[in-house]
Amino acid sequence: MRSPALLNIVGGLALISGTLAFGQPDGAPSGSITGTVLNEASEFVAGARVFAIPTDGRAVHHPKSAETDKDGHFTIAHLDWGTYRLFGAKEEDGYPNTYMSFYDNQTISQCTLAQEAPTATAIVSIGPKAGIITGTVSDATTGTPIRNATIRLWPWNYKERPLQMSAGSPYRAIIPSNQPVGMEVNAPGYETWRHLGTGTQPETIPFQLKSGESLTVNIALQPTTK
Amino acid sequence: MVHLRDRLVSSMGQIAALAVLLFGGSHSIYACNPSYANGISNDDTYVYAETNILDPDGNVIADVIVYDPLGNRYELDGSLANGSETTNIQLDINGMSGTWTNDGVTWDGSEYVPPPAQLTVNGPPAYMQVVQDYQNICSGCTTTVARVTTYQVMQANGTNVGNIAICETLSDSMWNCSQSAPTVDSLACGTPPGGTTSTGQFTDIWSLNANNFTPVGCGFQTATDVWKRANIDGSFTAFGTLNGALMTTSTTINGHTIVGASTDGAMPMGFRINP
Question: Are A102 and B206 inside 8 Å of each other by CB?
Fold first, then answer.
């Protein structure tokens, strides 16, 4: 993947002025961020959710957010002074939450609100749509479905950040598209399954799906030999 | 109905009308009967949908009264003329909002074909249920997780509440990291509330949202988060209580712990969370 330092900061009319404080003197936050959500085709996205995540050390329980209107516009109001990164999602249409590093599209909008600059505008990029891998997990010798398998997915160049999920049979995995993703499947009593290339000594290779693409992968696990 | 129709037709396209139900006694609105009770009729020009609000015993407790944008009052005597193809009538009934859906009317060349008319009254929120729950590393973090959970706020009768104003009463405690405890971004009751979607949903994100807390795995060992409706009169109605923990590498919500980037341990879809 990439280091935070390589984040592509876009949009956001950022302005830092004076000492940042949480809220106004009367305690009523009044900062706001307005903006537009665009997809990978630079089209407006209606019904997307935009989250304002503070970058100044605050933890989050319920970050302020807003939904885009039919024209893809949003306004997140009542924000305390501070710096925010904006993340978008519209999961029902295949756009995963980009605050999750596994689905990070490496495009982040960042805005700073202060008393001298209580409003900001931003463009939030979501997409590409995730890819979806579905299939079954079964015993290679008997064909019996295996319901206690574990699927491990990882950005191909960032194996230390896997996403792990239990896999019933069938299973459904949502992966970032347009980038290579590794996948392996484990279950007690079976050899680890890996996605192998072709050839006499095939090596593990990644999946790479296009935006919104679905792929069926039926997995047959070999019982371990005693 | 005919005299009413004539009066309504000129402004029907504009009616985003406020309808007020006047009813006496101590009946509470239980669920709105989608009422085809008196059916839908049509004539050459207009579609009529008739409905009543019934109490749990099936007794008629109210008829609909509509005010148009000019403030004209129409007693509908249990029926409403709707000449528009796209008008939904917004209702506000003793503080509870609802929508009379009567759109999508079609004309087949000889008569209007009405869709089912349905009056839905949103009662108070009673509980919330899980729509989606998963966890991953937060953006820009190395090991710190973020748990994203979408809830749907429900009425006692099992239908969602639609758009309502919401807030939370949050208490994080038993901090055990070496560093000072961070402040927490939340939607505190008493500040401007947030809102649910038209299907009663909202998305929560729990994360310490930083890399600098040590030792790995530390955090708030106890987190209590009570979700409430922010009522117009300034009071709050609780509809979901979350109890758990918010740590750097794991989170727990109502007994469901997710460790690291995973969906394992997540609350299943439909998991009910009570006030």
Answer: no
